[in-house]
Design a protein that fits this description.
Blueprint lengths: L5 E8 L2 E9 L3 H4 L11
């Protein structure tokens, strides 16, 4: 089983990273993301 810790979202402007927003795993359900992924890929 894979347990994600965070997701980083990058905003790119003019070919450069302008902003990074980090979402921690406690926000995953609110974003509609799974709390874990099975190791077998299913």
């Amino acid at each position: 089983m894979y347990l994600p810790l965070t997701i980083d979202v990058l905003r790119v402007t003019g070919g450069a990273i302008a902003e990074i927003v980090t979402f921690h795993s406690d926000r995953f359900p609110r974003l509609g993301l799974p709390e874990f992924l099975p190791a077998d890929g299913s």
